[in-house]
Predict the 3D structure of the following.
Amino acid sequence: MTSPETVTWLQERTSLGILSPEVLNAIAQVIEEQVVSAKTDLVSEGNSPEALYILVEGQLESNSTNQSNPALACGFLPGAVIELKELLLEELTPFTITTVTECHFWVVPAAKFRELVTQYPEIAQAFSRQLAQELAQVTSALSYEQERSIALRPYLVTKAQRGIVGTSRYAVRLREQIREAAADRKSVDIFGEPGLEKDNIAALIHFGSPKRREPIIKVNCGILQTSGADLFGRAGGKPGLLEWLGEGTLVLNNIQELPEELLPAVTQLLKTGTYTPVSRSGDPIAEARPSKARILIVSEKAQSTIERCIGHIIKVPPLRVRKADIQTQVEYYTSLYTRSRGVSKPHITPEALRRLQSYDFPGNLKELKNLVERAIVQAEGANELTEEIFWPAETKKKRFRVNLLNAYPSLRRFLRSDWWPDRINYGFTATAFAIIVAILFIGPQTRDRNFVLNLFWAWWWPFFLFLFPFLGRVWCSVCPFMIYGEITQKLSLWLWPRKLKRWPREQAEKWGGWFMFGLFTLIFLWEELWHLENTAYLSACLLLLITAGAMIFSALFERRFWCRYLCPIGGMNGLFAKLSMTELRAQQGICSASCTTYQCYKGGPQKGEGLETNGCPLYSHPAQLEDNRDCVLCMTCLKACPHRSVEFNLRPPGIELWTTHVPRTYEVALLFLLLGGIYLHRLPELQSWLGLQLDLTDFWQHLGLSLLVLIIPAALTFGAYGLFQLFNANRKPRKFVELAYSYLPLVLGGNLAHYLRLGLSEGGRILPVTFATIGLSGEQLPILVAHPAVIDFLQGATLIFSVLMTMLLTQKIAKQSVRSLLWQHLAAIALGASMWAIIVF
């Protein structure tokens, strides 16, 4: 290459281009060409420079023993000038340079280059200026980085605390969502309950992304200025966090606490990737600036206002639905704590693990971590963490509960045996019911001569009304209607093998309750207008109609569709069962952590101590029950469960009515229908008390008065609720459909008070009535009849207790002062007083 071409190449391709052509021409005159083979050390660290090297072709790399300065290890491309600074400053070579490939160099020997520097002072001056400029640039960059570091330091997240622990499908899905979110730069909304370490998930997304070397900061939205200056900066003034952050990640923690004034600006940032610095009052609005930062939002609930602007939405599942991960979480936290303290790792017992799995953990992972650490401290070096150490792990749903199956093992054995309820149903009830219906048709037709009418009206009604507060829907487990329904189902499948229809749940949930309400209304009217309680064949027809409904729907649908949605007696039983002091439930933690077959719900073969069953006849999972409405105490789940999860608990009566209860309109309608039925049963006494002179032998007058009596009690309670709202306009009261359940004790007590007279005055005549049924004289047989004063006392005491319980339940449900609920209490007292007037007197 000729000298002019060499000068041009040096000007265009090397850092020597800052020198004048005269100096470059002088350098070109002394250049020597040299070829160095690959993997050869060109210069060695710590030696004096031997020449100035200009790389023309090939690749080099440097290496240094100085580990504190990684910048010394770098690569060189054609045009690189090597040993220039060392020759000018007379320094030793700071690193070793090795050829990667065969390299062509222009070489100026050290002695000749020093002569050129002496001859041309411009060389030293030019490179002194360049070094000064580079130093100024480095100083400026260092100053910027220091200022940036100071601005970001209070919010900086240095690392992710931990990964996602667990192997459940929830944990696997969460890991997949984190990987998906880390693969791009879209914004992410991470929401879930407190204590789920959502900010750690944000850190996992950042440190798993290609921009992991950029900073990540977490800002609590509750402390942001309403102007947004700390986040967006000021126009012409101090930069905001977004500008300092660059291409890093911004975590907006607790977005629900963001000042409302900042919501439009944050929405703009998410939607367009731009923000507007804050301008001072009177100044024009600044121009929007682009932001390269990635936005991660952490909240306790999904934010509908910004949901459309979000690229990824991650709902973090609470710990109570990840019970399968609790054992892994406990092992992890135990290892973490013991390693940090240098103590031996204890083993958690199965009983302690079950207790943790049965707890709902409102504080989620943070609460579990604290429980584990506290348990290790309390264990004081023991080898095991036992159940007693985890004393705080008691769910609210388990408070005030006593599991009768654990307290009385013989009760568990009986309820798991064939006797309950199959042998009772198919060995006694099915046969007895057929005999009863036959006697109603062919026997005497009045209650004083037909023992079946006596049993039904004087024994069955008061006994099972009295039993509701103790055992809920226990009658449904031995109900003859559904026994014949099951017999029909089995026979029809044997004669015509087929697959029964699945339940139309949506339609049944919507209309089934109203069907029960309508059917019960017709039963009430039939009973009153045609005197069912004293007409045997009509009572038989009623029983057969209900049985026919059970048989027809059992032939069409699987399991007990009639019992669950359509049976009027079942609807009444489910309503009163809410007041029961017992409940059948299952431990949610054990069910979700240990069970994979759901045999209590679906049925299946024998497994462990779990027996072979066909599953819950009402398709109710015991761990998901919120009240007693959909449990008939058949104990199928108890027999099927291999994990001893099912519990039969003693509890405060009706506790779910003021805790977890979900109101239903049709239940409220049925409740007030049963309330009106009390007055309907006492229509003659009601006429006498009110001074009415209607002719009840006239069908239409009788029907009109009956309908009016069924409606008026409901109207009275609704009027009291209207006054309650009127006098509490400054506060938001409970909805009527919620507060109406407080009348349940009064409805049950009123019905029981009505049937007590029949039970205590006619029930004891069962022996002579039985003899009269078969045509014999039973006048000499013993009878047991309560004195009228005793009956009046028990009826009055029942009504008074019912009114008091109604008032107490009203307070529990409404959670307001007695004064604000005065009208509701007055309505209950008025209803109780009116019942006293027509039942006791």
Notes: The chain is about 50% helix and 10% strand. The first helix runs from residue 3 to 13. The chain has a mean pLDDT of 87. The CA atoms of residues 460 and 759 lie 9 Å apart.
